[in-house]
Predict the structure of tRNA N6-adenosine threonylcarbamoyltransferase.
Amino acid sequence: MKNGRVLILGIETSCDETAAAVVADGREILSNVVSSQVEIHRRFGGVVPEVASRKHLEMLNPVIDLALKGAGVSLGDLDAVAVTQGPGLLGSLLVGLMVAKSLAFVLRLPLIAVHHIRAHVYANFLAHPRVNFPFVALVVSGGHTDLIYATSHSDFRLIGRTKDDAAGEAFDKVARFLGLGYPGGPAIERKARQGDPTAFPLPRLHTSGDFDTSFSGLKTAVIYRWRQAQERGEKVRVEDVAASFQATVVEILEEKAFAAVRAFKVPTLLLAGGVAANGHLRERFATRAQAEGVKLLLPPPVLCTDNAAMVAAAAYYQFLRGDFAPLTVSADAGLPLS
Ligand code: KG4
Ligand code: ZN
């Protein structure tokens, strides 16, 4: 506690970012340090789990040091240590959890185990002065495409998910196929800016009644259409493929998210996760929200991708209700939301 405020150290190592942050009262970011491994994994075209955990081991302590220094606090000022318990890469999660447990044990502080997808949602609590329940949240990341209905801090229900690839995963796979590099989302977004989304027609959304999504068929359609065009000697611009693919993914996400908002009769829609950094997605959702009278909340792009400030923010509400983890808690690569 410092100046009457609850200070939480957040730690995030679920995938390929080693991150630590200090957040006051679940709202004010005092520091937010992210050490990205993108350059290391780029040469493999994707995250290599074994390499990721080794890099977390090497980077986590210096990253925590930087976060404390950046916040101008010492370990003794902290009220709790929060860490991502899952879902994510098991070896990577274990590194964060081990360090968080050691700190909590030595400092005699409560340990707070945070769900990674919930943490993404809480990026919005950092970015906006007021977030009112109930809301629907769409978390679109490299591993998840989750639609969540939340009525309170302790009641988050998963109402839809991807049946196959996550949206970010589809971006990454299509980018790799097109030779655009890793991570695929930003690479496709850059190419799409010079593309015509109607020049490379892809199958449109096949709407089913539920809130689940599917991107694997779309990815296959891109590959099939591309090969077909090559065989026929048609000239296809990568920019057009990127624009068409991006537009179709966003259309699918938009349909499902707004259908959920209507079905659950909520006034507010939250977006979160790495794919929510996509400029086209942000614009489309903003336009649609305005047309439908829905309040749309989005974190700034730096809080969309993996970071530890969102972990500390989510942990604050667990802190308030005394939801602490024992030091025996284990990492869970497939941790369910509720
Ligand atoms: O949330 P996140 O940082 O990590 C996970 O929890 O997975 O999301 C990473 C995903 C990657 O698939 C990446 O390609 C995608 O988010 N992404 C984007 C953009 N920036 C990151 N996808 C589309 N457009 C972007 N600008
Ligand atoms: Zn994430």
User: Anything to note?
Assistant: The pocket of KG4 (ligand 1) is lined by residues 15, 141-143, 168-169, 171-172, 183-186, 189, 273-275, 277-278, 305-306 (CB under 6 Å). The domain at 133-299 is CATH 3.30.420.40 (Nucleotidyltransferase; domain 5). The chain has two domains: 7-122+304-320, 133-299.
